[in-house]
Amino acid sequence: MPYIIMKTMYTFIFRIIHAIQWTVNGRINVIGKENIPKNQQFILVAPHRTWWDPLWFAIVLLPQKFIFMGKKELFKNKIFAKGLDMVGVFSVDRQNPGPSAIKIPVKELKDGTRNFMIFPSGSRHSNKAKAGAVVIAKMSGKKFCQSFTKDH
């Protein structure tokens, strides 16, 4: 799919999700958004507590765009997989990650325009960080931007 179409679809899809989120839950309160780099790529590092986390971060950080790592099980449904692809999610086998888990974000961070969002624990059910985020940062030369969510 041509990049310009993916870029437009990314914004369109996340604006729709934002409208639905706002209708159901109201406004998302963001503290510290001014600390997010505006003119340079970065790696957003955050805890992964709910399956909504990547959506919330992507919504509140628009117009910035991200690529995301997603477990291969998310790609079983062809229609859902196409939607994930359109917003920059790439598939990773968590049991056998392979070199593409590092190469894809490094290439985008070096040659592309999107940032990379990663949840270092690799799961909503773990607090143990994996080393991939550090490897990606070192290979791409990009800095981390730490973030977190707070339950109400």
UniProtKB/TrEMBL annotation:
CDD domains: LPLAT_AGPAT-like. GO terms for molecular function: acyltransferase activity. Keywords: Acyltransferase, Transferase. The keyword Plastid does not apply. The keyword Lipid biosynthesis does not apply. InterPro entries: Plipid/glycerol_acylTrfase. This is 1-acyl-sn-glycerol-3-phosphate acyltransferase. It comes from the Bacteria. It comes from Oenococcus alcoholitolerans. Residues 42-145 form the Phospholipid/glycerol acyltransferase domain. PANTHER family: 1-ACYL-SN-GLYCEROL-3-PHOSPHATE ACYLTRANSFERASE.
